[in-house]
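[09:14] KT: can someone run the structure on this one? pasting the chain below
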Amino acid sequence: MKRNDSIERAITHVSTGWIPPRPEVLDKLKAGLQSGRYQNDRSSFKKDLKEDLSLYVYCLRELMKIVRQSEEHSEEKKNRNFAKVLDTMSLETFQSIFNVDVRSISTHSISETSDIQAQRIEETFLSASASEALAGASSLDPELGFSCAVLRQLGLTLIAWNYPRVYARACRASDSSTDLDSRLKKTLGFTPTLLATRLTRDWSLSEVLTEAVATPAGRVLGLPRMGKETDNTAQLLSKICCVGEALARAKHPETYPSALTDWESAQEAVAAYLGPKGVDTIFKQAEQYIGGYRKQSPELFKMLDPGDTRDEIVNVQHGARLLEQNVYLSKLSDHERVDFASIYMRMRANKIDDRNIRELATILAPQYGFQNLVIFTVEPEKKILSAAIHVGSCFSDRLRPVRVDSRSGHLDFIASAYSLRTPTREDRIRDGETISCLAGSLGTNQKVGVLYMETNEETQIAEGRNSNLLFQVFRRAIGDSLNLN
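[09:31] RB: done, structure tokens below
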């Protein structure tokens, strides 16, 4: 009962919020319909419609509602084809459908798109482009492949805009043992597939499309051999869409742990149907669809290039492995782990990214109550620790260079931390407040320096945080960023 309540509330919520359309595409469609430009050129209408994901699905929804009202017989519903309706419905009907403003379609604005939402649009168009091409090669209507792929992604897309924080946390979660759908179900109480299926139930889709949309996303199980007939169109359509979805997942390994397997299996399936250049063809088509989005927000919508996908997956999975190996992170909350996950996804083997160090030191450390921080590096020949990075206003005596030898290890706090395997801690007074000072060596097999952090322990306790645990999280993360572990 509770699950039914949650899905019904969600349908009402996402139907109101919807997906934000691009105003310029809506204006373009209105002008073309008004001027009669599409009168003898229906293909241009469909091409323009596909420039906007929101308007495409909005048109499908409104059009099929009109069709439902005009048809009575179940046999007609069984064979109903959205692509054919696009070709045969009067332009006056489309004028009526698009005689709206953007605010009546969605409560959201495309200008406020986040990076995660942009990723969702890219995935949908890449999946749809693959399904469109594969459907055509399988003797199915390419438009059927495109529309099916878009609808199979609709649940995720609607969640991305109408539950943005939930969606972002699920995408950035560090738990590689569960997929994105499972993470969302854990929070929302329903899967994206169920949301799309229930939402489109009253749209009078064909039985083939209805069945294909309701089939959960899965791994690529293989398409029928080229030229082999199949009696189950919905099953073939689902398999085609699974290939497209795998291709789209592979472009975002930071979200999908299965990316490498997805990439290899999708490449094999596409090559069998479209030839060795099939993946390139699909990416070029997807590029055309998202071109307008990129023109508006080039910083969010990057060029889709299949060339370096495998290397990028391997690099990101390197960061994902380090993330899982940071045992201290596993003791934090899901929300806290997400803060560190994006940094780990940028980590590359045998490469140091200065952005990771800066973000840990200047953004995350203060966010978690460590206003003052120093990273010391050692000069092996001179055996001296010197401050390489300094954030905040540390105790001034902590900033001077320190010799590391057997004698100084007993006399100096920083030198002592360098010599020990586990972090050390001491409390000092500043302006009447007790400041906890924590220090620990950087590097496991070979020590290269010391991390030093200061925090107000009373504040940490009041915030419900464990300063010793957090120090270990930062110490490990900085070491991972420096390729020390």
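[09:33] KT: thanks! The radius of gyration is 28 Å.
[09:34] RB: yep, looked fine to me
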